[in-house]
Amino acid sequence: MLESKELFNRILKAKNLTIYRLSKISGIPKSTLSDLASGNTSIYKASLKTISKLSLALECSVEDLLEGNIFIEESLKDLPPFLVSSIEKMIEAWRHIELNDGYTLWDCDYCELQSEINIAEVEGLITSQRAWELREKYLKISRGEII
Question: Which of 20, 42, 62, 87 gives 4 a disulfide partner, CB atoms 3.0 to 4.6 angstroms apart?
Fold first, then answer.
């Protein structure tokens, strides 16, 4: 799961927006958006009013906004569906961890994604380089680490 700050900044980048422009489009004060961009305020703990205004301005659902589906579809469109499904579960697991809400199956999601990446790599559905990109991004590991 992406940190709130990373999620918000990737949304800005994906939509080619500045904080100033998003403020004008959404009616949300620049200071509020700056707090989201800097990580001082978590997008996952923002008010319903702020989230609603953001989703309207970005032309997406609240769910897609909070799950990062605004930009994730583009970056995953080259992957097999079974792998995309596992990545989505892992993103959700990271969100639970960030919220510290007692979610107990994150380790299962982690192992499932690692297995799915390995299968896709061995079957030649993704390159080794792409497999490591996915491991680094969604499992937060890098080459040389013991799993």
Answer: 42
